[in-house]
Amino acid sequence: MMALRTVISSKIPMVIILGATGTGKTKLSVELAQKLGTEIISADSMQIYKGLDVVTAKASRREQEMVKHHLLDILEPHNMFTVVDFRNRALKIIDNLTEQGKVPIIVGGTNYYIESIVYKILVEDMNDSEALLWDKSRRKRDLDDYSDDHDEVETKKAAKEPTHETTANPSTSEIIDETENISEKTNSDTCIDGTKNTQAVDKEILKIDVDNEKKFTNEEIHTKLKAIDPVMAARLHPNNRRKVLRSIEVWLKTGRLHSEILAEQKLSEGQLRRPGATVILWLKCEQSIHDERLNNRVDVMLQEGLIQELLDFHAKHNMHRIKDGKPPDYTKGIFQTLGFKEFHDYLMLNEEQKDTEEGKKLLQESIENMKTSTRRYARRQNKMIRGRFLEHPFREVPPIYELDTTDITKWNELVKNKAFHIVESYLNGSPCDYKPIEVIIDEDKKKIDGNSRNYCDVCERLIIGDKTYEIHLKSYKHMKVLKKKKKLEERNKARAEQQNLD
Ligand SMILES: [Zn+2]
After folding, report:
1. Low-confidence residues of the chain, pLDDT below 70?
2. Chain-centre distance of CA 145, in angstroms?
3. CA-based torsion, 266, 268, 272, 273: positive or negative
4. Ligand 1: distance of its center to the CA of 472 in Å?
């Protein structure tokens, strides 16, 4: 029953609208959602906060009345919100909508939010995936002093691009979905792989030892790991007690070798969460026209009360900070939004100062600064879309359709109707008049992991690289799907025979 529902709902595509700021994402999303009678999920790390409606370019009140918007205006200005928080909430809403037969429409402003739902990963270089299997509830308490691996994560955070695309990174303690699946299969079918060296080890005794781990030295614990997972043991120094224990625990809980689980996770990192049911619409605009449009957009924001909005917000949330002698913090929450920093000097002036020539000049400069950063930001966004979704060397590439918004007078023809047609072709399984953008992966990049593209008929998914494909065919996931499909086939056969008898 469960499986059947999954099959049906997987036919409903998840539609993602991407594009740099000011390309008309909101407009298209509302039109599409109205046409399909569905709801919109906002994937924008600034619009998720309450306030600053003008400067963050939120869907207007009217647009929000026309279509239900999720993940908009849900946080207070200083709240922290990680990409994992986003992903967890968004996936729940997506599942909910698909179960109702509705097409989820996800509108991106923040590319890494989108990545977290398109691919099975959190962020790209999540090397510390061992942490994902850490049993927080139990052992963390005992081992708080062994904070060995936290430093690595901190450094990685600091190395990230310092833009407001990077509000938050997942931390060590966050768990990805796949982990839950792994622990579910604790006692069943554990022998597909991973048990070869472990026959001699008594699970019950080991469990008791781990529960009383304080009695053992680092070396003794390391030896215990070596007996079950020599590959993992070779990778870990005995002094790395926390990780050694964790690897043992993985085996106790799942019956599978930690080293193998990690190898598999690495393999699935670039895979689509919903293969065959992910459609990306990329709104683009010719550069010079787009620059012009962005400048106008700032002017429109000014007419809509941008300055007053910033002033009010500044007075409400930043002033008390400044009075306490602390500088305003533009690195947290909604304060990272484009426009705030740019207007800082002006916002700090008192009423009298604002009225002077000097003050007026400062305001003009702030406006120019905002225009410049907006244009720069838009360029960066497009580059990122290209790099993360289209030309990423290890990721499965979803179908991405380009929609040209350069000529606004042809919006219906070139954007709206085209988008309708593409989505409908996925919904009805009917032919599509348009082709997704062809993938141009750099030859050098491809060589890193073979340049072939292999399709696994069993799992119905594309796997890039021969070596990766080879590993995939032996992987637990592949075997599981294979087993399920066989079972289903047999059941259908039996049913057919039964009917023949009747
Ligand atoms: Zn497969």
Report:
1. 1-10, 122-200, 266-268, 440-453, 464, 500-502
2. 31
3. negative
4. 6
